[in-house]
Specification:
Blueprint: H1 4-28, H2 34-60, H3 70-86, H4 90-114, H5 120-139
Length: 144
């Protein structure tokens, strides 16, 4: 049985995971520290795994996937390239990804509160995704 709040919450999580993976992909080759590169690669794999789970749940609910907002994606690309052109360091990468994590956590909790009637599985996956973002942001602090 489909639940509109469940579908909407899962779609926002889907867009968020895609945005995170795209952001990590865009910046990963610029990282010089092997430990930081491993941390980002591991986080990317976590995002891809949770996105797969989101797709399964969306299919069960007869919901469509959702792409990240093209304006947000474009603004992120511009910000990343401008900052990296001024300072192509691991600290800049950490700063950019940490900002993205913070925005992701904020958005996820906003959607969790907005779609209160979403089923427990959708809420749990949203919280799990927020936790992945919080952990990555915290782990990157030593590179700032």
């Amino acid at each position: 049985m489909e639940n509109l709040d469940t579908i909407k919450l899962l779609q926002e999580c889907d867009a968020g995971t895609k945005m995170a993976v795209a952001s990590i992909d865009e910046i990963l080759e610029k990282v010089t520290d092997t430990q930081m590169k491993h941390l980002l690669s591991e986080s990317k794999a976590h995002h891809e795994k949770i996105d797969y789970e989101i797709h399964l749940l969306l299919a069960k609910q007869k919901g469509q996937e959702k792409e990240p907002n093209s304006i947000a994606k474009g603004m992120s690309w511009i910000k990343t390239n401008m900052k990296m052109s001024m300072d192509n360091s691991d600290a800049t990468v950490a700063d950019l990804i940490t900002d993205g994590c913070n925005m992701g956590v904020k958005s996820l909790y906003k959607y969790l509160n907005q779609y209160k009637a979403a089923d427990q599985k959708a809420q749990d996956i949203c919280i799990q995704l927020a936790s992945i973002e919080e952990t990555l942001g915290k782990d990157l602090r030593k590179y700032l």
